[in-house]
């Protein structure tokens, strides 16, 4: 019964993440005005989340080749997902703090870094391979396998969280300093620019919390399972499965649903026939006019 509940929670949460990620991917494909370098990184983040969720939904595959394929694919795309968040943080830091304008030239380096690291982590985890933990082929039951899973997934994950947190802290601190300087100089135009920057970027300080919220319970659960194998804590497993599977949805809302995406969607809604627009909620019409 517990396994069925965990499988259902995993499939349901992953479906939400798949829908959110697919929406961002679709927006990037359909709306040409979104195809800027910064949103291209968000596109690849959403693409990774989409495949991570898709393979996660497969759930309880039979043992054999399909189980290996599902396990490795899930690991590969989930690692790629949190690595793409580090490229977004790096781009922001290089642009805002270091005032560099060469970030677009780093596109090939980002791809090599994300896909190369994801592939390396996926290959290394074949050490001590012993799949078959209930509904998830990407988790391992052997003690060596569990240790390798911690090293090839959770270690780089928390490295990414620390990097993102430090990077966003520096960006927000610099923008705060710029705001104080503008106030001290009584420069109204610079004050307005600084306020707009802070309004747009203040929420970025919460982005590392997405990864923490998604994977904190999973990390605790993996460590507990490594120390005391066979002594499962059901509520911890439930939070582990549910929050991890929602990562794609959290990312699509935080990174993807920015003002540019909303504006692009609202502009298309304006092209709808009047009889269809009448069925839209009033707050969507009002926000469309404001955008």
From TrEMBL:
Keywords: G-protein coupled receptor, Membrane, Receptor, Transducer, Transmembrane, Transmembrane helix
Gene Ontology MF: a single term: G protein-coupled receptor activity
Topology class, membrane: Multi-pass membrane protein
A Pfam family: Dicty_CAR
Top-level division of the source organism's lineage: Eukaryota
GO BP terms in the entry: adenylate cyclase-activating G protein-coupled receptor signaling pathway; cell surface receptor signaling pathway
Main location group: membrane
InterPro entries xref list: GCR1-cAMP_receptor, GPCR_2-like_7TM, GPCR_GCR1_put
Coiled coil location: none
Domain G-protein coupled receptors family 2 profile: from-to ranges: 6-259
Transmembrane segments annotated in the record for this chain: 12-31, 38-59, 74-97, 109-127, 147-171, 204-221, 233-257
This protein's GO CC annotations: plasma membrane
Alphabetical list of PROSITE patterns matching this protein: G_PROTEIN_RECEP_F2_4
Subcellular location(s) per record: Membrane
Name used for this protein in its record: G-protein coupled receptor 1
């Amino acid at each position: 019964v517990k396994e069925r509940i965990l499988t259902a929670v995993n499939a349901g949460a992953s479906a939400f993440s798949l829908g959110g990620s697919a929406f961002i991917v679709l927006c990037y494909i359909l709306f040409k005005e979104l195809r800027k370098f910064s949103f291209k990184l968000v596109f690849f983040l959403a693409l990774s989340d989409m495949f991570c969720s898709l393979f996660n939904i497969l759930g309880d595959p039979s043992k054999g080749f399909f189980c290996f394929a599902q396990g490795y694919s899930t690991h590969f795309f989930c690692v790629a997902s949190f690595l793409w968040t580090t490229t977004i943080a790096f781009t922001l830091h290089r642009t805002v703090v270091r005032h560099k304008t060469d970030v677009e030239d780093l596109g090939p380096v980002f791809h090599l870094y994300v896909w190369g690291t994801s592939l390396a982590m996926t290959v290394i985890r074949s050490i001590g391979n012993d799949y078959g933990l209930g509904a998830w082929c990407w988790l391992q039951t052997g003690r060596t396998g569990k240790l390798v899973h911690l090293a090839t997934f959770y270690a780089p994950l928390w490295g990414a969280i620390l990097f993102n947190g430090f990077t966003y802290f520096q960006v927000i601190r610099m923008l705060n300093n710029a705001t104080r300087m503008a106030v001290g100089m009584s420069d109204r135009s610079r004050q307005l620019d600084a306020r707009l920057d802070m309004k747009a970027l203040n929420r970025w300080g919460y982005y590392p919390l997405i990864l923490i919220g998604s994977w904190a319970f999973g990390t605790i659960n993996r460590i507990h399972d490594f120390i005391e194998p066979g002594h499962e804590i059901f509520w911890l497993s439930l939070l582990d499965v549910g929050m991890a599977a929602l990562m794609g949805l959290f990312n699509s809302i935080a990174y993807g649903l920015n003002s540019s995406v909303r504006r692009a969607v609202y502009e298309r809604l304006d092209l709808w026939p009047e009889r269809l627009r009448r069925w839209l909620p009033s707050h969507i019409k009002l926000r469309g006019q404001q955008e």
